[in-house]
Amino acid sequence: MPYQSHGSGLFERFQFKNIGENVVFEPGVLVFHPENIAIGDNVYIGHYSILKGYYKNEMTIGDGTWIGQQCFFHSAGGLAIGRDVGIGPGVKILTSSHAFDDADVPILHSPIEFAPVVIGDGSDIGVGAIILPGVTIGRGVQVGAGAVVTESVADYQVVAGVPAVVLRQRW
After folding, report:
1. What CATH number corresponds to the domain at position 150?
2. Is residue 77 part of a domain?
3. Alpha-carbon distance 25 to 37, whole Å?
4. What are the pLDDT digits (tens) for 142-156?
5. Which percentage of the chain shows pLDDT scores above 90?
6. In a domain, 84, yes or no
7. 81 near 49, Cβ under 8 Å?
8. How many CB atoms lie under 10 A from the CB of residue 168?
9. Cα–Cα distance measured from residue 91 to residue 68, given in angstroms and rounded to the nearest whole number
10. Shortest CA distance to 58 belongs to which of 85, 90, 81?
11. Among 14, 22, 67, 165, which is most buried by a count of CB atoms within 10 Å?
12. pLDDT computed for residue 160 by the predictor
């Protein structure tokens, strides 16, 4: 019996819901469900990143956004990245997780819960940060390298740590 796959991750530009001008996909980028992904103008996507679209909900990436290499974006719950956002290498953004309410059911087999992630215009996500389901990151936020963001962050705050905490206001 052959193995089943959700696709090769290989894609053509015409498959996207929308794709702007001057979009750069470096070698090794994989895209799943491009029909549910919209990318603005002047977006850079670094080597070996994975844009894991989903059969429902959408991923949008705003104009002028820069995505470093080896990022992983999963948009099962919906993912909206604003304009002019900097995303460092190795960032992970997740929009779903398994419920683990019943101790008699292995977590892997528990129901999946979906929650959108929104990243505001002009924000910067540091190298290796992880953004968890349901988080909204405001405009102009700086997320420190390696941070795990478990709660929403207001505009122009600087957060870092595991879990991420507010260090200061930018303005």
Report:
1. 2.160.10.10
2. yes
3. 14
4. 999 999 999 999 999
5. 84
6. yes
7. no
8. 9
9. 8
10. 81
11. 67
12. 98
